[in-house]
Fold this sequence. Notes:
The protein has helices at residues 11-24, 35-46, 57-60, 78-86, 89-104, 127-139, 142-145, 150-157, 161-169, and strands at 2-6, 51-55, 65-68, 73-77, 110-114. The chain has 173 residues and is α+β, with helices and mostly antiparallel strands. The strands form two sheets. Strands 2-4-3 form a three-stranded mixed β-sheet. It has a two-stranded antiparallel sheet with strand order 1-5. The protein is globular.
Amino acid sequence: MNCYKASPMSRNDIRRFVKYIKHLTHLEDVMYFPIVSFLENIMPLLIPDFQLEIVPVIEMGNKHGETYPSRNLIRIREDVYLRAVEGSGRDRLTIAHEIGHLLMHDEDCVALCRLAPDEKLKPFEDPEWQANAFGGELLASSYLIKGMTVRQIQEKFGVSADAASVQLKTLSK
């Protein structure tokens, strides 16, 4: 089976990286992370040749977003972008996930590989797992959600119930 394998990053590595990004941008104590504003206004400051394309549904099909690290390009499907603007937790996470790919993955840390039929990619080497962990931590940082319920996290951080549950489960890891 072909797959993409990233340089290993633990959840704690990702948490430290997200906290650094949030500190750098003075957003470390913000509960409702301004993901669309971050995408449009802060990413070009972090990556001077950053490109964002909002792409019609007809062109992107089933893909909600895609990232091309070698071109510093994030493409977001138009309906996903519009729902993120409106506050949809799932769509906000899609954008955070794509930002994670761009900030963490490049041609030097992600390789195409072939696994043996009985072999599975370790989560900490899976670029999709890493981008999901990054997105969850960016929107609902572990250091901010301690002591909260799923519902409180949903309301205060603008994430889905699933994302809130995952973030709560990872507090003990």
